[in-house]
TrEMBL record:
Residues 502-550 form the Soluble ligand binding domain. Keywords: Signal, Sugar transport, Transport. It comes from Alteromonas australica. Pfam families: Poly_export, SLBB. Residues 127-200 form the Polysaccharide export protein N-terminal domain. Gene3D superfamilies: Outer membrane lipoprotein wza domain like, wza like domain. The keyword Transmembrane helix does not apply. This is Sugar transporter. Residues 1-27 form the signal peptide. Residues 38-88 are annotated as: Disordered.
Length: 607
């Protein structure tokens, strides 16, 4: 029968109304309603003679929960696929169940047992030590005088049944001896001309409960031959702050049938030899007495000990102090008061400890032999081991040098402690400069704007100055005489090479090295370097002598007058022209000038 367009339109409209008023529409989405409207519109425009069979049941095979405006593709959908760890809306997660905690500086000893995915790395073959349980399947072949083949299932009584043989007890039989057990029983009936082959095909999983301070307590399936570690890893591992690594009980029918100590496994590879049964419970007990080993040991962890193990000897055994550790520092509480001891390793081994103590191993051996470095123009080894108390002249006799190439009259040292002190002095000058800039008084708004610009310039200078690393140079030679000073660990003895150059740097146009000319004046050397820049301080020039000594001079009629009473430049000297500070621009001229001189002397650079 032909249906008019008007009738067809009202039919579609009624369909939409029924969808809106029907309770089943609560399971539909806005997108699906739009599809319905499009289908009705298309049917009105096409003028077809039949109405499509549209129903909420066949619009979309995937049903959804009521939508609250979220993403339809990710929220509230029923699915037949595993969730793969995705939580449902409102489902508790580890962030809502566990309180927020700071990461542990010293995690528990043996905590790395639960790193990785070893629970999924089970071998495909059966374990020969697996104990046969009800539900396991066994394949049996008999040939010769009698032919028989079948796959039998171990019944609830632990038996398998073979025709003409009867029931055979196989429960709690190791998988490796099932063939021998069944064959022996068959040969009691068929004594001649019968061959038998028996093989365990499948094993029945067991259901194990994991409880106590673990991350995900609950019920887990596995094989009876799986280890305690397997089920603990399935449960997320032991809670580091609450769970015990030493007391893990396996409970069966309300009784503890075995206990696991993960320290014994970690140190000696020992785990309880147990075949799990359906309904067993792995119970992790609360954590016991703990001792924290902070530093100085190979195993700097949080250790759990029984009351009998609370002594230094046990801690030494598990923590394994470093080779050079000589003392142990112990801190804790005794009778409500602070307790602290600093003992040798042997004395610490006899010390009783209490729960909550912290231990730190210290290498407190006084060095009797230390290393000295040699740099520059020399031959032989670049490092020497010397006894404590050795002086410079004592070691110079053991350094090979070529007198034609080595300038043994201008030896100097590089010392780490001096470099640290120079860094401190520069930092003090920079801090004083910062204070002078940020605390300067301001008399007007215009002056304040100028001071703000100056402060930014000074801040940039301070940032660059703090990147300078001092050399720690120590002057030990003068006019061919060498001071016999006491050497320190890691000192570097520098023997300069004989050179014919004079180095010119700093505020000159072309910093370079110039061949020494005894007839040339200082003005000649600076001219060969391109002359002064516009920022050069030409009235106070720094000269660093080859032996590390520093002198300041000024140009007077083309000649340098030196503060160290040396009238002339010498080969190997370094001329550094420092920058001048405009007194009309910056207020802290004195502080900046002082810092520039300190940096130039400590690092041989002009900032």
């Amino acid at each position: 029968m032909k249906i008019s367009k008007t009738h067809h339109f009202f039919a579609g409209l009624l369909l939409l109304c029924s969808c809106v008023t029907s309770p089943s529409i609560l399971a539909q989405t806005t997108e699906q309603l739009s599809q319905l409207r499009q289908q009705v519109s298309q049917s009105n425009n096409s003028g077809t003679t039949s109405t499509p069979n549209v129903s909420p049941l066949n619009v979309n095979s995937q049903r959804t929960l009521p939508d609250n405006g979220g993403d339809v593709n990710t929220m509230g959908q029923f699915s037949t696929q595993p969730r793969n760890g995705v939580s449902l809306p409102g489902e508790p997660t580890i962030n809502t169940v566990f309180p927020a905690q700071e990461p542990m500086q010293n995690p528990p000893f043996a905590a790395n047992l639960f790193i990785g995915g070893f629970e999924s790395e089970r071998t495909s073959g059966l374990n020969d030590n697996y104990m046969v349980a009800p539900g396991d399947k066994i394949s049996i072949w008999i040939w010769g005088a009698v032919n028989y083949s079948s796959v039998v299932t171990v019944d609830n009584q632990g038996n398998i049944f073979i025709p003409n043989i009867g029931p055979i007890r196989v429960a709690n039989t190791p998988a490796g001896t099932v063939n021998q057990t069944v064959t022996t029983k068959i040969r009691q009936v068929y004594t001649n001309d019968v061959n038998v082959y028996v093989n365990l095909l499948t094993t029945t999983p067991v259901s194990i409960y994991v409880s106590g301070p673990v991350l995900r307590p609950g019920q887990y399936a596995g094989l009876a031959s799986d280890s305690v570690l397997y089920y603990l890893k399935r449960a997320g591992g032991i809670d580091f702050r609450r769970g015990s690594f030493r007391q893990i009980d396996i409970v069966r029918n309300g009784k503890v049938v075995a206990s696991a100590d993960l320290y014994a496994f970690f140190r000696d590879g020992k785990l309880p030899n147990l075949s799990f049964k359906d309904g067993d419970t792995i119970l992790v007990n609360p954590i016991g007495n703990t001792i924290v080993v902070e530093t100085g040991a190979r195993n700097s962890f949080t250790f759990e000990f029984s009351s009998e193990e609370l002594n230094g000897e046990v801690v030494n055994y598990f923590a394994r102090p470093g080779e050079f550790a000589s003392h142990a520092s112990v801190a804790g509480v005794r009778n409500g008061k602070q307790f602290a001891r600093y003992l040798s390793i042997s004395e610490f081994s006899q010390l009783p400890l209490q729960a909550g103590d912290t231990v730190e191993y210290v290498a407190d051996n006084e060095p009797q032999i230390y290393r000295i470095n040699v740099a520059g123009a020399f031959a032989g080894a670049s490092q020497l081991m010397v006894d404590k108390g050795t002086r410079l002249l004592d070691i110079l006799d053991h350094i090979e040098a070529d007198t034609t190439l080595s300038d043994t009259q201008n030896i100097y040292l590089l010392r780490e402690s001096v470099a640290v002190k120079q860094k401190e002095i520069i930092e003090q000058g920079l801090e004083r400069l910062e204070r002078s800039m940020y605390t300067a008084p301001i008399s007007s708004t215009g002056e304040g704007a100028i001071r703000a610009q100056e402060a930014q310039l000074v801040a940039d200078f301070i940032a660059r100055a703090r990147q300078v690393e001092p050399q720690g140079r120590v002057v030990v030679s003068e006019n061919g005489d060498i001071a016999n000073i006491l050497l320190e660990p890691n000192d570097t003895i520098v023997i300069p090479e004989i050179t014919d150059l004079v180095h010119v740097g700093g505020e000159v146009m072309l910093p370079q090295s110039v061949v020494f000319n005894p007839d040339a004046t200082t003005e000649d050397y600076i001219a060969w370097a391109g002359g002064f820049t516009q920022r050069a301080e030409d009235e106070r020039i720094m000269v660093i002598r080859k032996n590390g000594n520093v002198a300041f001079s000024s140009i007077d009629d083309g000649m340098l007058s030196f503060t160290d009473n040396k009238p002339h430049l010498a080969p190997g000297d370094q001329i550094i022209v420092l920058p001048a500070i405009d007194t009309k621009v910056l207020q802290a001229v004195k502080d900046i000038t002082q810092v520039i001189y300190q940096i130039a002397i400590a690092a041989n650079v002009a900032t």
